[in-house]
Structures are given as structure tokens and as C-alpha cells.
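cron nightly-structures :: item 1 of 1
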Amino acid sequence: MVAVKSVEKFAMECETEHFLMAQRQLDEIAGEMGLDPELHERLRYPKRSLIVTIPVRMDDGRVKSFTGYRVHHDVTLGPAKGGIRYHPDVNLGEVAGLAMLMTWKCALMGLPYGGAKGGVRCEPWKLSAGELERMTRRYTSEIINLIGPDKDIPAPDMYTNEQTMAWIMDTYSINVGHTVPSVVTGKPVSIGGSYGRQEATGRGVAYCARRAAAHQNLAAQSPKVVIQGFGNVGSVAAKLLHESGYKVVAVSDVYGGIYNENGLDISRLLAYVSEMGRVQDFAAARNISNEELLTLPCDILIPAALGNQIHKGNVDQLECKIIVEGANGPTGPEADQILFDRGVLVVPDILANAGGVIVSYFEWVQGLMHFFWTEEEVNHRLEEIMGKACDQVFAMASKTGLRTRMAALRIGISRLAEAKRLRGLYP
């Protein structure tokens, strides 16, 4: 009875849009594939969740408390893996939902990991470098019993970066008494990071876009691409697709977007953004809103910003042939079904943005072996894994008639289910 009440309490705290959407996806594919009901129930909730209070000495001398989270959804296939995000909207439900998606993503890609996620509820843009460091180190100290190279390996996510990972690695290493580079991934190359990690998610999105274009027989037509989000993921994808002969006609950031139907000069745009800090007012392009950007006529739409950007309120206005999800959860469940019915190919987030966790796996392996690869080796292995996963998902969708999102989930969850069956339930 105590265990049941515990699950019920967790369910109440987790009833957020992110977590419920992840559960709905699991429930849908579980019914489709005839997943064992007991296993289905075990996968609906995380294995463990930790909520911590993080007191931080601010620059003005006062102490301010922040709330932090770390969630392990499943560790059947290996240690937990997932990013850490700093954002005012971070909550238990969001972190738990993203941890669940990480489980499916790792299983789909054949990585020896389970899914995790973490975060701190804060406004990082309002914190000084010193405040961010003190918050990160205290957060690390609070979750230190959960993390470790054979338990849980964090990585960067929204508003965290290489420096954040360096602070986590240093804090953990000081506590255990020796340097442990493999406790995190996404750290600087100078302290054990991997070449190619920073660009990996955007590179993976570009790989998937090219694979999807070939699958839809669009590759030879210089496909038109629209990208929402011009941060680390969107800008890298834009650069690589532009270099491949694709015509990137529109991009956007948090301030708004720009459009040129004849294509943007991505090299010049990257230099402009580096100087100005935004894409709007770029020469030879007209300013547009993020809402307008989503409805532009194009071959490939890449939502690489926030979640729930494509929903039942705007899906009928979309004029794309392919959607490649660079962000986590950018397409709502109702919109996903409508797009499928219209024949729009959706490359789901657990496939399209898996480049980051794949190269994080490479970094973890290199750290454990103390043997490092060249950037060319990293990129080649990344393309090999993502290409294989794309082909498997497209083949499963064609064979079963499932939406590509459900096909991807079926592959990942089938692998996890087989592992759980073989390991059994203890005691």
C-alpha cells in the first residue's frame, strides 16, 4: 500500500504537459505492440527522483535558495544519461518526461544507457558567472550520490554548457579525491571532452534531414529549409545543410525571424549573429515572426527551439513536406496525427536530435579508455549510427503503417522490453 501511495503522489506532482505527453506516447505504442501490462506499468514512472534545495551566496551577500531536480527513468541497459537545464520553467514533471524520452532515445540508438534528466529552476541570464558557478557546485554536491561514471553521466542542456560541465566534473572529482573526466560529457576538450561534441546535435539533425529528403525523393531538388531556432542546434544544421546544397530560406531566434525565398547566405548570417546577437535586420532578408516562420512554404521544416510549437491550432497552416524535430517535443500529439494523415514525414525528436547523446557516449568511452579520437572519426561514427537508425525507423514505419514517431518508439521500447525480460524482476 505504501508503494502504491508513493506512485500516486508522484503522479500528482508530475501531471505536467511534458510528462503526460511522454506517458501518452508510451501508452499508445504499448497497446499497438502488445506490451506486457506489468512491464508497461513499470515504464510509466521513473525509477527514482530527487528534489533538492540549493542555497547560494549571491554577489550582494544574501543567500537565495533554488530548487533542483535529478530523475532516473530507467537503468536497465546501463547507467543513466541525460542533460541538465537551467530555466525558470523547470519542474519535476518536465524533468521526468524528458528522462523518459531519453530512455527511448538511448534504446533506439543502441546505446548502453538509461534515461535521466536534471535541472535547476532559475533565471540563468540574471545570474553572474560567480553565482552560476556557486549554484552549479552546490547542486552537484546535493545530487552527488546519484551521479558517477557508472551510475549517471550528466551533459549540457538548455542554458548550460561546457563550463557548467567543467564545474560539475571538478566538484565531483574534489569530493572523491581524484580526477574523474567521465562523470560528465559535453565538457571542454582540454579536460577530456570529445572533438565534435558541441556540434553533434545539429550535425545529427542535418544527417536526418538529408536522409529524410532522400527517402522522400527530394534530395536532388535543392530542398528549401526553414529552421526555427538559431542556437547551437539550428545554426549548425543550417550551416551543414547550406554546404550540402540545400536552400535555407528562413531562420529565427527568440527575438524573431528572417526570410528570403531565394535562400540566405548562412556564412554571412553566422558572422552577423556573432556581432549583433540576433538574426533580425539581416541584409537581403525581411523580418518575420516565429509564428509566420512555421507556416512558410518549404520542403523541410526544422523546429529546433522550444517544445509544443506545432499544435492543433496552427498545424493546418503548415506547408512543409518533412519535419525534422531538432527540439524536444515540438509537435503536439494531435498535430502529429494530422501531419501523418496529410502525408508529412515527421522525423521524431528521439531520432533527429540524438546526435548529442551519441557523441556524449563517444566522449564517455574515450574518458574511460583514456584514448581519444579525431573529429573525423567522431563525425564518421555519428553519421553511421544515425544513418542506421533512420533506415530502421523508416523501414518499420513502412512495414507496420505506424507514424514514424510510433515506429521509433516501438524499436526502442522493444529493445528495452527484451532486456527487462532477460534480467527479470528482483526480488
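cron nightly-structures :: done
The domain at 200-352 is CATH 3.40.50.720 (Rossmann fold).
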